[in-house]
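Subgroup meeting minutes
Present: P.N., E.W., G.H.
Scribe: E.W.

1. P.N. recapped why we're keeping a running log of single-chain structure predictions: easier to compare across weeks, and new members can see raw inputs and outputs side by side.
2. G.H. added today's entry (125 aa).
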Amino acid sequence: MTPAEVGDQMRVPIPDEATDRRAAHQNGFQDDGLLLAFTVPTARVDAFLTRLAPEQPLTHRAEALTRSVKPMTPFAHLGLKEPETLADVRGGPVCAPCAGELNSLEVAVHPIDAQRSRVCLRGVD
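Output recorded in log:
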């Protein structure tokens, strides 16, 4: 699936200024996994996150998680590291349950450098 198609299925509009757009749809036995990642100017991250309307404030994690993380739908499918293995990440659930057929959606944002941040979204459909 294309990033636009996965974004539509997640009901997440990809910002026009997003670059390095990547997406995957993984068929599962009961649920499907959806991945969407893109890079945006760091100055635009808060506006994007506000549009997601998280029910709870997103959390900031300064350090990478030390426990082993084996997600059902890994970002390795997109050639990216798992957000849990990175330091300086802001994220959390943005809907549970979500509208339509989407069961859950989580976001993680990691700064790449002073100007750009990578947004990673993982959904279960």
